[in-house]
Structures are given as C-alpha cells and as structure tokens.
Amino acid sequence: MASKTQVGFIGLGNMGKPMAKNLIKHGYPVIATDIFPESCKELQELGAQILETPADVADKADRIITMLPSSPNVIEVYTGLNGILKKVKKGSLLIDSSTIDPAVSKEMAAASEKMGAVFMDAPVSGGVGAANSGKLTFMVGGVEEEFTAAKELLSCMGANIMYCGQIGTGQAAKICNNMLLAIGMIGTAETMNLGIRLGLDPKLLATVLNMSSGRCWSSDTYNPVPGVMEGVPSANNYQGGFGTTLMTKDLGLAQNAATNTKTPVPLGSVAHQLYRMMCARSYASKDFSSVFQFLREEEGQ
Amino acid sequence: MASKTQVGFIGLGNMGKPMAKNLIKHGYPVIATDIFPESCKELQELGAQILETPADVADKADRIITMLPSSPNVIEVYTGLNGILKKVKKGSLLIDSSTIDPAVSKEMAAASEKMGAVFMDAPVSGGVGAANSGKLTFMVGGVEEEFTAAKELLSCMGANIMYCGQIGTGQAAKICNNMLLAIGMIGTAETMNLGIRLGLDPKLLATVLNMSSGRCWSSDTYNPVPGVMEGVPSANNYQGGFGTTLMTKDLGLAQNAATNTKTPVPLGSVAHQLYRMMCARSYASKDFSSVFQFLREEEGQ
Amino acid sequence: MASKTQVGFIGLGNMGKPMAKNLIKHGYPVIATDIFPESCKELQELGAQILETPADVADKADRIITMLPSSPNVIEVYTGLNGILKKVKKGSLLIDSSTIDPAVSKEMAAASEKMGAVFMDAPVSGGVGAANSGKLTFMVGGVEEEFTAAKELLSCMGANIMYCGQIGTGQAAKICNNMLLAIGMIGTAETMNLGIRLGLDPKLLATVLNMSSGRCWSSDTYNPVPGVMEGVPSANNYQGGFGTTLMTKDLGLAQNAATNTKTPVPLGSVAHQLYRMMCARSYASKDFSSVFQFLREEEGQ
Amino acid sequence: MASKTQVGFIGLGNMGKPMAKNLIKHGYPVIATDIFPESCKELQELGAQILETPADVADKADRIITMLPSSPNVIEVYTGLNGILKKVKKGSLLIDSSTIDPAVSKEMAAASEKMGAVFMDAPVSGGVGAANSGKLTFMVGGVEEEFTAAKELLSCMGANIMYCGQIGTGQAAKICNNMLLAIGMIGTAETMNLGIRLGLDPKLLATVLNMSSGRCWSSDTYNPVPGVMEGVPSANNYQGGFGTTLMTKDLGLAQNAATNTKTPVPLGSVAHQLYRMMCARSYASKDFSSVFQFLREEEGQ
C-alpha cells in the first residue's frame, strides 16, 4: 500500500481529537497542534507529530483540517501572528469544520486565496458519539472542484459528506438546521406540556403527534418528556446529548446571519432568547431538550 | 343484511356534508339538519331525512354526530332553545366532531349527563379531501366504555379512530397537534428563507434538513417553498389545503387552553400572533404554508 | 345632615375591605357579605350589617358594589343560585369593580337589564395602598346617564373617576393599561440589563432614558433596578407593589380580549408568556418589576 | 477674537451636513470630505475646505468628527487605505457620531491609541430637525479627561452633551434607548389598537394611559394613532420623523450587543423582527410609529 501524505489537524477538543484519531486509523500521518499541550499527548501516543503553532503545521502539511470553538479562534488560527496563512503552501487545501459565522468563513476563504490556498467550510452534525464512530455528517461549502479532494479526507471521519454550494453554505446549512431544530424542540416541549396539563397521557400524545402533522425529529426521535422514549437524554435526566450552551451559540450565529441578510426569523429569535435564559440557570450544561423541564416548572411549587 | 338504526347528523358544511354522505354509503339511515336549508338538499337527494331543528333530530335518533364551526355554535346546538338536549333520549350517544375549546366539551358532557345522555368529543384532522374519501383521523375523548360504540360510526368516516382519554382530551390532542404544526411550519418557512438568502439552493436545503435533526412534517411532507415539492399547496400558489383563518382559530383555542391551565407556550403564542397578522392581509384564504410568502417579501421591493 | 341610603358591598378581600370602610367613613350604611365569614367581622365592628348571601344584600340595598377575584366569581355572585339577580330590585345600580373579561361584564349587564337593573363595570387601579387611602382610579363603563350616580359612590373610594364609554370599556381601559405597563416594565428591565452589561452605570442609564424617547412609567417612576430609585419595590427586594401573579392574570385577560377581537398583540403575548414563566418560579408573589431579576440571572453562576 | 483652529468633518449626509454647518456658524474653520463630491459643494460655498480623502483631512486637522451610516463605513474611514489613521497626528481627538456596534467603537479606539490619537464615540439622538437647529443630544463614551475638549465642539451642534463612561458606552446608551423606544412604540400601537377594537375612543384611551402606569413617550409625546395628537408623524400619514429602516438598523445593533454579552432581550428581539417585517412592505420609509398601521390592518378587508 502506497503511504498516504500528511494531514494537518488543528484543534484537539472533544470533537477534534476523535476526528484526528479516525484520520490516523485510515492510515494518514497526522501533524497536529492545540493550545493545550495536554490535549496533544493522546494523539502523540498514536503516532501523530505534534508541532508548536498552526504556522508550523502549515509549513509541513498541505492539507489541513481545523476544528475550533468559535469565530475568533478561527480568525486567530488562520490569520494570527502564528497562523496558518503565515506559512501556508501554494495549492494547500484548508478545511474548517468549526461552526462559525458564514461571513467569517468567507473572509478566511478570501485571505487564503490571496496566499494561493483553498479554504472550505465543512461544519459537522452528530456530536461526540458520531465523531468517535466516524459517522459525522459534513456540510461542505466552497469551490466545487475541490470537493472531491475534501471528501476523501472527510470520509474518514463522517458517513455523509454533503456538498452545499459556494463558500459559507456549509455553515449556512448547519445553522439553518440547528435553528429549525431548536424551534421544533421548544415547540414539542410546550405542546407536550400543554397536552399533559389538559389531561393527555404523554406517551399517547407523542403517538398522536407522530402519526399526524405535528410530527418532528424532536417528537419522534428525541422526545423531551421523561418516560416517553428510551435512550434519549430525557430518559437520563438530560445528561449527555447536545448542550444548551452550544445550542444557544448556534442560535446566536443564526440570528447574526438573519440580521445581516435582513431576514425575519421571529420564532428563531424567540427560541434564541429562551435558550439564553436557560443558560443563566441550571440548564446550561444539560441537553437542550431540558427546555421541557424549564417550561414545565409548575406554579405554586 | 339487518337494517341499521338511524343516525342523526347536525352541521352540513364543507366537512359535515361528506362525512354524512359516508354514513349513508355505509348503510346508515341519516336524519340531518342545518341552519342553511340549501345545505340539506344534496343529502336529501341521497335519501337522508331532513328535520327542522337539532331537537327534532334528537327526538328521532339516539346516536347523533355534530360538526360545527365553533364553540358558540356547539353551545347553541346542544343547549339552545331548540337544542339537542331539549328532546334527547336517555342513553343517547352524542359525538361532537367540531374543533372547540375543551372546556366547552366538558360543559356539554356535564349537561348531557344530566339528561341521561353520553357526550364525546371527537375532532378530526385531515381536511376536506380526507372527509370525502373517508380517511379522516378522529381523536376521541370521553367515557372509555362508549368508545366502541362511537368507533363503529366514526369508522365509516375515518381511517384512524384514536381514543385519547377522558372528556376533552380529543380536543386537547387536536389543538396540541395543530399548535406544534403551526410552529413547525413557521419555523420551516423562516429557516428555508434564511438559507436561501445565505446562498443555499432550496431543494438542497430541504434535503439536508430532512436527513438531519431539523426534519419535520412541514419540511418533508408539506414544504412551504415553491419548487421544492409537488402536489402540495406551495406548488399551486397556496390554493387549497388548510386555510390560514382555520389555523388561526385553532391557535386561539390553544392559547385559551394554555391560559386556563397556566401553561407557558412562548412559541405557540408568537405563532398565533403571526397567523393573526396574516389573516388581516391577503393570506386569510390561502393555505397556512403561505407564511413562507409572508416572511419572504423582500425589502426594497 | 340627612342620613344616606344603604349601599351593598360584596367581596371583602384585600381591596374590597378598605373600599367598604371608606364608604362607611363617608357616612354610608353598608350591608355586606363575603364567602369567608371572618372577613366580615372587621366590617361588622365598624357598623356594617352582614348578611348571608348576595341575594340577601340585593333584597335590602338598591346600590351594590362588587369586588371579586375573577370572572367565575362575578358570574356566581350575580347569576348564581343565591346571586344578586335572584332578588335585585327594579332600578338598582350594580357596580362591579372586579377586573374581569369585558365580555363577562357585557353578559352581566344584559342579565341585569332583564331584571330591570343597571350594571356598570368599574375596575380600579392603584393597589391596596390607594384602596386604604381612598385614592383609587376607577375606569367606568356603562350607560352614561347612570355615571353621575355611580360617581357619587365611587368618589368615596377613589381620586379619579373616569367615564370610559359603553359597558365593558372600563375593563377594556384597565386591561389595555396593564398590558402596556407589562410591556414597558419588561422592556425597561431588559434594556437596563443590556446597558449594565455594556458597561453603563444604571443610574446614569436611567437618567439618559428618562430624558429621551425611551422614557416610560417603569423607567422614571418605578424603576426595576435596585439602587436606581428609592421607595419602590426594587429598593425593597421586590416586596409589596403589584404581584407577578396579578399581572399575569391581567395579561391573560388582555390576551383573551385580543383573541376575541382578532387583534394582533405580539409584544403583549410574549409579555404574558414571560410573566407566566415567572409565576412558576420564585417570582409569583414578588412585585412585577422583579422581571429585572428574572432576566438578570447570569450565566455560569 | 482669536481665530479658532481647524476641525475636520467626514460624512456630509442628512445629519452630517447640518452638523458641519453649525460648526462653521460657531466660527470653526471646517475641513471636510465625503465620498459623494456633490455633498461637499454646499459646505464649500459656506467656506469649508474640501479634501479628497479622510487621510488628507487627518493630515491637516487634529480634531475630527465623523458621521457615517454604519460600522463598515466607520472601519473604512478610520482604518482603510486612505483612512484617518494613515496620517493622523499624535494627540488628535477623533469623535465618531455614527450609530454603530459598540464593539467596533472599541476596535477603532484601540487602533487610534496605537497611533497616539484619542477616539471617542458620540452618537446622537434627535433627528434631522435637531441637527439643523443645533439641538442634538450627544451620548459620549471614552476617556473622561478628553470629555471637556469633545464637549467644546459638540456643544456647537447639540443641546445635551452627556458623558456616559468608558469607550463604547455612548453607543450603548443610544442603542439601549432606541430598543426601549421601539418596544414602547409597538406596545403603544398594539394597546391602542386593542382598546379601539374593544370600543374605546382613542383620545380617551390615550388620556387614561397617560394618567396611569401605561404612560410612555410613545403614548404621551408621539402617539401613533392618527387623530390623537397634532404635530406628530401619525397626524401626517407617517411622513417625516424616524424611519422604520433606521429603527430596524438600531434594533439589529441592539440584538448584536445582546448576543455578544449573553443578555436576554425577549421583547427587543420580537420588536426587531416586527420592524424587519415592516421594512419588506410599504413601511420602510415611513416613520416608525406606522407600526400602528401595520398592526391595524383588519381581517376580511
């Protein structure tokens, strides 16, 4: 088997680390860095080469994947003093899997292009479990000609690799999905709560909704009411899953995108505000389906 | 074949007329009335006996189905001067398929019980098409022992007959479903609009959502964006389907039920207000998925 | 001084009791009743005659004031088995100071008219303090010819007696004012909170708002931020004042009135939902300006 | 009289031009520029010196005022290729009266400091009328030691010059005020509309609100209902005043600031969305009080 060429990986957090491991499993030599040296050890033991800075990584590898918490981190890692673009090679392929503002993705793409490199946005859905099992969904935006090259790498880490269009559309698809998800989840939570108060059995109500036009992913796959389904966070005191803080961040990105494009998002805005209020209480680290509990609290108790 | 006993039917509107016809098709002699004499003619030609008032119907038939526009009509038809309860026979089964406030259903049940009759609420979903083809879904609330008797009749008109629990829970299930439906529809409309403004192709975005956690009935079965699906109102200038005015009425019922039970329904409330605003414009008689068009209108045009 | 004729008073709660006392102070012989016998004692000691039922009161007095918690109580006290209308004298003047649905006021007026009596709605603003000091504001709806007679009595208990128009408009004015009050209070709370997080001193921000177009009663007279003003509930841990539960009730009435008249009230609806959520937490018995505290809770604490 | 030193002025739009004229009236030699040469003519005829670029202005004047439409314009005028900071003199005082994101004000202040200059944010309220008459209100953020120097210039153009605190707090005060203003205006509009539908006379209702706790600037100074007040946009078909588009822009800034500081602004968000919807219709260029008309449209018409 011909040896594969090196791949750079920057950002070894909860998501990035298992993603990088899956690249190694698929035979790619990985050159990685992270601001927390301890995050690098585990990868080093698996054979990855650890360097000091993003610039160092860009000096060695011409295909780089980044997985970072938010827009400012992406800006720093690409255009900072020791950023990728300081030493990026001409013709490099830079894939950012962070979930950030699509406008920032466009800026990074423009800055990369000036250096002769190609930048694509490829945010993921699926969470830590899917990252571990290599079953992530990637939503990819950027120059279509480069999609095949990107897909080769992303397929090591994900089960669905979807091309969404021009630069930024990967981010757009991601934040659109999550905005609708938040609306559906809050809607399911308030509907289930109302039905219960009106005397309906929660399992029966879920069955009715799921056979009818009220059906949605939050009602049929991830029901927020304890006792209705097994194997979901609501069955486990809202542990695990997709945290309220992360959902709130994505709703903030959706709100920014809507403001910038002058798009009215009335329910998306209210959903954002409700998750914001939950973050300030005991729900910050619970799964986002705990909005049922937030709305459920009863008067006079 | 033994001849079947007579069934009363009160309310021969867009929904009631085809429902009564299906009873006749199944061999039930129908005794009907409606405040508009002309609505009765068609049924009379099919063999139905037409009487003057609800009281007259109750005098002849001990199983009666009512299908009326709103709570005040139901109160009038049951407890009015010429209402059913003036002449109802002991042991009669009264089934109300109107969509009304569950609190009114409970009042009618209590008033019926005083006269020795049994009242059940059995609102429908499915629209005129399903009424014609006998494929309605009935959500039934009331004394469980009477459900079998009710089901025998309702099966002539519907494909799904669901027992929901005590009196009023049929209405509860109906308005819960429609509240979540409205939230999902508006959410889908604003999400699709945002995605399009961010550069995504609408069909592609629908595909992404439907494979992901944003999936809901409004995105995968009744998509509100023209060009995404065929055979839905959005493909036909929002003609037909479920009118904005009717959805607004149901959201008003959901809001009342929520206020009465002190249940917070933040997205349900905003959805109600948005459909209310649409009613005052050119959207009143369009399908409720036209909320996409309402939100879509672009600045500077 | 000629002795004054008797006045009936039904409902001796937190508001009703001091109102009835003020009638006695002004020399009116009072005939009262309340479902809680203990509420009557204090008034009996001041010389009021206590009777068993509203009907008994109507049998003796031809001017009656009612002050009750909600619509069902009003319906019971007027049209119940022992209600006022069972024994009301022709030509009686019935003044209801409860805050209820204007539609119920209209029903009571119609029922009273059938018995030859005149019913007026006259809800109050001002709270327990103003009730004690006889400084309430009364908003009066009903036949204009009777306003002078009503004003004579109401002036013993209030400083402002405003004629608002036909029956129900007193209630309408009350719930309109309280809906706008709730919107202004929540708006002030979120604005002050945002300003503080952006680095503004709260007192300075209040000064800027109050000199500018953001000014409202909640910012300049009843500021919800502790430390900005003295002598308001926010200066006293939100004790006293106008309770969150009462505000929520009034917002429910406003919502019902809006639904019934097909009026869009987007901010009124969201305000209702927010106060509803507060009721289920520790804010139920606090002043409604505690919405600042509700919104203020900080993330990560 | 000793001659005054030159003042730079960049941005000669609807607001900037009358502001610059007032500086000239007060005896200041003005050096100005604008991207539209025709905007400069009028000022040139009054004696102002017109230069090509912001950099040119900075080369001549060590006190500069900028008045620009939005954040990107400010970034360009300060840090662009021909921006102020290319040729700014050490010790210069740079005052930005644009309404922009406070985060951008902070960036500009930091960039200015690197060049040895002082940047202050000083957005205005009062509109074109106040700009003409020199009666603007300035809300000023920045180093307190420089406030006296800033005030000397701003006093030529405004009646109230308020020091708000550290850099960005001028913007913060401005967007806070306008967010509360929008909430109060929409609240007043929906309340007046509800009251009218409930049978109240609009003038009477305004009187009741203004004597009560519902009172706000939008109800007592700028009432949105035609016929209630004179000399306001609602009396003139919503011509003039503060345009819906501008209010929507400010609500977008408030939303961004809230998202960035993790502050819940539920009513501010909904207000933003409603004005956004109005922008897409015929209300874009009308005064923002036309929200009454937007909500007022009646069903079935």
From TrEMBL, chains A, B, C, D:
For this UniProt entry, the molecular function terms from Gene Ontology, in alphabetical order, are:
3-hydroxyisobutyrate dehydrogenase activity; NAD binding; NADP binding
Q: What class of enzyme is it?
A: oxidoreductase
UniProt-annotated catalytic positions: 174
Record carries keyword Ribonucleoprotein:
no
Quick one: where is this thing mainly located?
Answer: mitochondrion
Annotated 6-phosphogluconate dehydrogenase NADP-binding domain ranges read 6-165
Q: A GO biological process this protein is involved in? A: L-valine catabolic process
> Any keyword Transmembrane?
no
Q: Name one Pfam family in it.
A: NAD_binding_2
Where located?
Answer: Mitochondrion
Q: Which reaction does it catalyse?
A: 3-hydroxy-2-methylpropanoate + NAD(+) = 2-methyl-3-oxopropanoate + NADH + H(+)
Q: Where is the 3-hydroxyisobutyrate dehydrogenase-like NAD-binding domain?
A: 168-294
UniProt entry keywords in alphabetical sequence: Branched-chain amino acid catabolism, Mitochondrion, NAD, Oxidoreductase, Transit peptide
Q: Which EC number(s) are documented for this chain?
A: 1.1.1.31
Q: Please give the GO cellular component terms listed in this UniProt entry.
A: mitochondrion
Pathway field of the UniProt record reads: Amino-acid degradation; L-valine degradation
Could you say which protein family the record assigns here? Belongs to the HIBADH-related family. 3-hydroxyisobutyrate dehydrogenase subfamily.
What is the recorded name of this protein?
3-hydroxyisobutyrate dehydrogenase
